[in-house]
Amino acid sequence: MAAGDDERFAVELRRAIEQSGLTLTAISHRLRARHRPVSVATLSNWQSGRSLPGGEQSLGVVAALEELLGRAPESLADLVGAPRLRGRSVRTTSFLGHRSSKEVFNDALRELGFTSAQQYAHERVFHQHATIDSSQDVQSFDFGLIVRALESGVCRLPAVYVLEPAEPNIAPHFIPVQGCSIGRRVSWPEHRVYGVELLVDGHLDAGQVAAFDYRVELSARATDMTAVVYSLPRRANDALIEVEFRGDRRPVDCVRYQRTESGETTSSVRLDRRERLQVSEARFGPGTLGLRWKWENECEDDEDDEDDGTEREDDEPGSDRAMARTGPRTGPPRP
Fold first, then answer.
1. What strand order describes the sheet that includes 251-260?
2. Do the domain assignments include residue 86?
3. Are 79 and 71 in contact (CB under 8 A)?
4. Are 292 and 193 within one domain?
5. Which pLDDT does position 54 carry in this prediction?
6. What is the pLDDT of residues 296-318, one digit of tens each?
7. Which carries the bigger pLDDT value, residue 67 or residue 175?
8. Could you tell me the pTM of the whole model?
9. Band of pLDDT at residue 241, cut at 50, 70 and 90
10. More exposed terminus of the chain, fewer Cβ within 10 Å: N or C?
11. Is the residue at 331 inside a domain?
């Protein structure tokens, strides 16, 4: 943790509490009702800087605090870090909200009008189908969602992409397919950040459920993609991610990935007969689901680079050419 994070966390938490108008006693009672018990004394120590949250349970409380106090997702959690991850070691995947792009990512959310957790619809059912085609220079990602409105009025979600350095800096194409339209947009090529506000058709009452579909097309080679990751800020009834591979290149060393407040776990997965990878969970969240892979023949490519004396940035061993998209609560999942 960088020097000064203790003070930054205390300052931000104290400001959030003051703006909420709630007493520490009221906050403690509301967190207990959400099954995130924390004492008034602990909250007082946190906001005064005498101590920091530590461990999985405390970080779960911080995640609940963000929602209760109407703060941006991970705005407090990122100031105290994450718990030690469990499961076998995996290389870090760059996904939306990664610390290196956190500030500009949150700026994009604010530009799209998302300043509090209540403004994000609750995803009840989520399905992502990615088509990675090595014969094409455009990769497509289809999303199907069933959401529950948390407020009466227009139900909306953000879709924001931070492109990796190895990916072409070309704005993704956001396409409303059914049941939604595009509202505000963000296009910041200098930061490699692009996003839109997704508006669910019609006026919804709080608690009402709606379904919609949209597509994102990225101008990139198949080999620019080594992961598909999705963050869910609240518990979803069902979540499914599928990646279909087309063309003459095939993934190797494929793993399912999930991260929750309990830690990080991975497990091996193979292509099925439809040339797809899949990860699915029922009653999942908050957390992140994803699939990761490498590309066959990468070793041969590396050997060729060594033989001819050239270096190819996007084939550098250990480089990460991941694409990812967040859910309604943007940023990394609450660990």
1. 263-268, 251-260, 287-295, 227-232, 325-326
2. no
3. no
4. yes
5. 66
6. 775 444 444 444 433 333 322 22
7. 175
8. 0.62
9. very high
10. N
11. no
CA-nearest of 225, 294, 282 to 258 is 282
Q: What one-character DSSP code corresponds to residue 119?
A: G
Token pair, residue 301, equals: 């490519």
Number of CB atoms found within 10 A of residue 169's CB:
13
Residue 132 confidence (pLDDT) above 90 = yes
- Write phi, then psi, for 269 (nearest 5 degrees): -145, 145
Q: Which amino acid is at 288?
A: T
Same domain, 197 and 48: no
pLDDT beyond 80 at 152: yes
Structural domain of residue 30, as residue ranges? Answer: 5-79
By the 8 A CB rule, do 243 and 291 touch?
yes
Instruction: Kindly report whether the peptide bond that precedes residue 317 is cis, defined as omega within 30 degrees of 0.
Output: no
CA distance 1 to 189: 30
10 half-sphere exposure, CB direction, 13 A CA radius: 14
| 322 in the same domain as 184 | yes
3-class state of residue 219 by DSSP: strand
